[in-house]
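Quick board copy: two proteins, each given as sequence then tokens.
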Amino acid sequence: MSDIPSSSPADRFNSASATTGLAGARQVGDDDVPVAGGDSISRLEAAQAKDRGTTAAVAPSTPPIEPAKTPTKPSVPGAPSPPPLEPEWKPTGKAAEHWDKLKSTHAAESATLKAQIATAREELATALKTGANPEEIKTLKEELIRYKETLKDVAIERDPEFKKRFEVREQSAISAAKLAAGDKASKLEELLKQPANPWRDEQINEIVEDLPTSAQRRVNAALGLLDQIDVERSAEIAQRRQEFDQRQAMTVQQQQAQQSARAQEFTKAFDAQLAAFTDPKAGHPFLTERPGDDAYNKGVASSKELASSLHKAFMAGELTHDDIAKAMLHVAVSERMMKTAQEALARAEKAEKALDRRRAIAPGDGRSGAPASDQPDSAPAPGSPEYMTWVTQRLAEAQAKDRISDMAGGRIV
């Protein structure tokens, strides 16, 4: 509290009045309030105001409150600072050239891989946009596997994996021969890559004869290795073809056995159906014989023979496409044809009986199951075009008889 002035405003006012006249003013000090003129009241008010400001600034009752600071993450004690970047290491001398080549090769390979990855991503995005079906992709992969297996069976020498496996060894042998051939390396390489023939062998022998003894041994060793590779390749190709031929022969045998089994099953089914269709009690009307009707029974026998011949021709593969198509069409209309014939026959029998009663004549020989008519002794084979003409004619005759009955006095039923 020693900083608070001990003099009161009145004391300072009196002191100022004693040293300063009413008409003039002295120089203002650091603690004085400059007041213009000699007005005593104004100077007193100025001194009081100064006292109030000094007391509030010098003697606060409570310590000032500092504003809150933004919290910061404390630093980890003992954390090492990142090391400074070191310059790129590079070998010196002759190795520097290889180092630069290696870096350029690596950069080129990296760029190629990045381009391939970008292309694959674009293709994948396109496939997803177009709605590629996973099942379709799976099917294509399975087909690719089958095609690869087929290629290995029929032309193993064109299989990329097979060619690569032998080409690596061949190239190694050719490189060894080139190193030994000296200035004739290019010509020797060209000859070694050609198919074996007498002229090629003669040219290679001429090159080898001009080489030193040590070089001749190395070239001959490389030639021996190439011959061994050719033998191995030919042996594997022959083995693959033999295995393929065996599988093909086995497949043919299996197919023949399956065809024989199907033929036996078909023959068995045909015999069973023929027996059912010709059953005297429950068989087909056109394939069951009638007692005492030789002409009709002859047509039944002809139909059976035709069915058996068609069966044999089908099993032997002798039926043409037209034959099979016609047979299908006949089968499609057979039910309607039979129904039409039965209805026509029933109407004819009814007309015959009505006409006989109208004329008061005794029934003839044809009243027990077949109407008497002027039909020929032998009818056309059932199912043939002539048979349908014959049935139509019979129907017309029955209708004519019905009209005669109407003219005679009305239809009798």
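And the next:
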Amino acid sequence: MRILRLVHYLSLDVCLGALAYQSFFYHFRFRHQIPFSYQFILFCCVWFVYLLDRIIDLRLDLIKDNRHQFIFKHRKSLFYLFVVLGVFVIYLLPKMPLIFLFQGCILFFLVILYWFFWSQKWFNRWFTKEMVTAIIYTFGIVFPVDLNQTLAFYSLVLLFFLLVFYHIKLFLHFSGKKCFTFLWMVELLIILIILFTYILGLINLINLIPILITLGVQLIIHYFYSTIRMRLIAEMAYWSPILLMIYELF
């Protein structure tokens, strides 16, 4: 349990979930395994953004839970680690396809724009930072984006975006920012899209398994274990594509 707590404090659970779903989407599109370099760069970027966000929260005196305090306590060691990882990323970037670099610049610009909007307090009830966070995260997971895809692929991307958006709002709900109506509306929308894609034969049941597991875990947490302490379990639900990978091995 201490290992899982350390993984959670370091946001490695989020990184593993990102890598699992990136592999899932890449394999769904191209029918072969994603290159290691793509995954390594995604891991570094996701980890850096999450840990930097924790440090900013502490600097602004927004949140002081155990996860944030752990990051702040070990910030110097993490800085040196990021320098080493950054060197590897810089080494790999020239070897990446041009479309990868171009879309990476767009993603980086979106992150900068997000922090600028947040610092200027330009988000509102219709244009929320949670929605933008879910968009950026989804874009990073399906990266590199190829617009010449099937309706099945876009349906999966939409489902993933809604799951991430729902996840963020669910734990804001647990922390006091109540949004009962929003949560059940998103739950209903996700279920309807799943039924629509399955009934029309756009996506077979096997490829829906990761989405169903991730949704199922979050629904159980919402209705039976409504506490912010279930965040680690909710993050681990995003590891579900690993089960699909194991299934395909056999």
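Board note added afterward: The radius of gyration is 18 Å.
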